[in-house]
Design goal:
This protein is α/β, with parallel strands linked by helices. The protein is 18% helix and 24% strand. The protein has eleven helices and 26 strands. It has a ten-stranded parallel β-sheet. Strands 14-16-18-21 form a four-stranded parallel β-sheet. The protein is elongated and about 80 Å long.
């Protein structure tokens, strides 16, 4: 038995909690008597389900573990003309596609995966791949990717697959707390057993080295908008080699990433490649990044010839924007305060709110680095840290107590208030400190 719908263009399956497969190929009396274990392992769509002209597929609130078979031949792909794929609230899914199946979606233009509690990777490698060989998957028409509210997402694709998206113009990653890197370059059983220390040093976006062959793991040549928020395990965002290829970026928004220490990281090898230029970047938003120390850690100069809007809020550890020269001829001020009152109401337009926010406070000291240093020096938390450092005992326990004190005081200072006024009017401060064990 097969199902073929050559005229079907749009398919939406929503709120069907008992639907486990579109076509049950194992429906025999014996299977019914022995239970539903065989059905549970089936995919929602199979080789005998053919929608050759389907362009839009929406799946919402389904209890399915797999969408397609891992080894379905791409030559007979059942949905080879699919352009839009949206998956929402499918809490049993652990991955979206196998690398074999992904090759059959060459017409895909829009991909949205959100609110899927169990999903750990978007493209997985289930089939055996020869050691040292790199699988290449090309989404040459893909323009927009959204990954939102995926609490277990670790990676986009595994270390043995290279993904090319030459026309990707918008990438949104929001509330993916387990995501450290797009590509797991250490995804082996041995690495998993020995811990995640190597993964912790990777950038979210980086290049994949394979011997002397150095392909970009994902092609961002036409990316225009990069948005990342609520990803607490991301430490570095971009490798400098990747950043050099983002020549069409017009907007970068990075918000609420607790462990992010730098946006662009560098290596000794890359220091010799010359200036990093974001030719078309107009808007840069950095907000609520408590661990951010620098935008760029290298000594190479960095240029923003068209940057006109820089929002820099709640980054208390940011003392220097870059170690090298910064060229930003059109920038005349840094926005240090915005109106947060509408943010909860505009959750679906979260990034648009930030990027279009009207400033409440502007600061400018002639250039970016000087302004950033001035903001750091004027931050009351910085003043408190220096005040206590002068009289501190050198023991580690005393330092830990200071850290706790700073974090407590920091929690009291709301971003919508004039924070210095709290201390200008202060007459008496009493504290009882308990030594940490």
């Amino acid at each position: 038995t097969s199902v073929e719908c050559p005229s079907l263009r749009t398919l939406t399956i929503q709120n069907c909690p008992k639907l486990s497969t579109f076509l049950d190929t194992n429906s025999t009396k014996k299977d019914e008597q022995e239970g539903m274990s065989s059905v549970a392992t089936q995919s929602l769509f199979q080789e005998k389900v053919v929608f050759p002209n389907l362009t839009k597929l929406t799946l919402r609130a389904l209890k399915i573990k797999k969408l397609w078979p891992d080894q379905l031949p791409t030559a007979s792909s059942s949905m080879q003309n699919l352009k839009r794929l949206e998956v929402d609230e499918c809490h049993s899914l652990e991955y979206l596609l196998s690398s074999t199946m992904a090759k059959g979606f060459s017409q895909l233009q829009y991909l949205c995966v959100k609110n899927c509690r169990a999903i750990e990777e978007i493209i997985t490698t289930k089939e055996l791949i020869e050691e040292g060989k790199m699988e290449t998957i090309s989404f040459h028409l893909l323009k927009d990717v959204e990954l939102v509210d995926l609490p277990k997402l670790r990676i986009f694709n595994s270390s043995r697959t290279s993904v090319e998206c030459p026309n990707l113009s918008m990438l949104t990653i929001q509330n993916c707390p387990q995501l450290r890197t797009f590509l797991d370059t250490n995804s082996t059983k041995k690495d998993e057993q020995e811990g995640m220390s190597s993964v912790a040093t990777q950038s979210l976006f980086q290049e994949k080295r394979c011997g002397t062959f150095l392909p970009s793991f994902i092609s961002f040549n036409n990316l225009k908008t990069l948005r990342v928020s609520h990803c607490p395990k991301v430490i570095n965002l971009l490798a400098s080699s990747t950043a050099r290829g983002l020549v069409h970026l017009s907007t970068i928004s990075i918000i609420k990433c607790k462990q992010l220490t730098e946006i662009i990281t560098t290596s000794e090898e890359d220091e010799t490649k010359g200036e990093i230029v974001f030719k078309k970047l107009k808007t840069l938003v950095l907000d609520d990044l408590p661990s951010l120390r620098r935008f760029y850690s290298g000594n190479t100069s960095i240029a923003f010839p068209k940057l006109t809007k820089l929002i820099l809020c709640r980054c208390p550890e940011l003392r220097s924007f870059s170690c090298g020269t910064i060229n930003s001829s059109q920038l005349t001020s840094i926005i240090t305060q915005i109106d947060y009152e509408l943010i909860d109401k505009l959750w679906r337009r979260y990034f648009e709110f930030y990027e279009g926010a009207k400033p409440k406070e502007l600061v400018w000291e002639g250039d970016i680095n000087t302004t950033v240093l001035k903001l750091w020096e004027n931050d009351p938390i910085t003043s408190i840290r220096h005040l206590f450092m002068e009289t501190l005992d050198t023991s580690m326990k005393a330092f830990q107590n200071l850290f706790c004190l700073v974090m407590f005081l920091k929690s009291l200072l709301l971003p919508r208030t004039n924070r210095l006024d709290w201390f200008l009017r202060l007459n008496l401060l009493k504290m009882t400190c308990r030594m940490l064990p």
